[in-house]
Amino acid sequence: MLAPTLIWALVTISAFATSVLSGIVGMAGGMVLLVILISLLPVSSAMVLHAATQFTANGSRALLLRKHILWALLPLYLVGALLAIGLATYMVLIPEPAWVLLLIGAFAWAGQWSQSLGGLNITKPVTTLVCGFSVTFAQLIAGAAGPLLDLFYLNSGLDRQAVVANKALTQTLGHCLRMAYYGVLISVNSELVWWIFPLVIVAAITGTQTGVKILERWHDVGFQRISRQIILIIATGCILRGVYLLLLTELF
Length: 252
What we know:
The chain is mostly helical. The chain has one domain. The chain has helices at residues 4-25, 29-40, 43-64, 74-91, 97-113, 115-118, 125-142, 146-151, 160-185, 196-215, 220-251.
């Protein structure tokens, strides 16, 4: 078992590295960070710390790129998000990551092949509402929904900075709602020390700033191509992780 000091050091380094990744492509970092945190901490602690870190990382990224935000998307997205948290609270859903990871992975892969899914466009009102509901619901019960969220943006015709900025804003809202959700339904494990929160917040902000600087030097063609490749890699990881969790449940 790792010493507490080493665990907190790994958590802080991971918060920085995954924020750099998300700052560049606007996704993937959250899922990678969640896998790391769950490997190092109890699930309840991992989910709370992940939400706080990602709230900071996405919030700072949205702030840095605020001139690229399409504020007209926000009202319908919020309606969908509030419907999701209302349903989850009514049903008192406790996270069961395995099936959600499988669904997110399958949906992301299907989006590469299906014209109907490939036509999802965040700038269309109905799609904005659906995005707010589905992505927020996935965040509440699986912790991260990057591959799912990305489907609504890669077909929007927005440039790379607009994509990253608007995804950052919607992710910030989702993580804020997730902290509220877990604050009501899940008790935070006492293994979390108070000073880890400012450490990961600083790491997330620094990583985000680094990623955004790299993003400014990138071109749109390379951005779209690499983003799609990352979607499939993360989707495959979601499926494998989901299968693994299901097998653990069956065996134990």
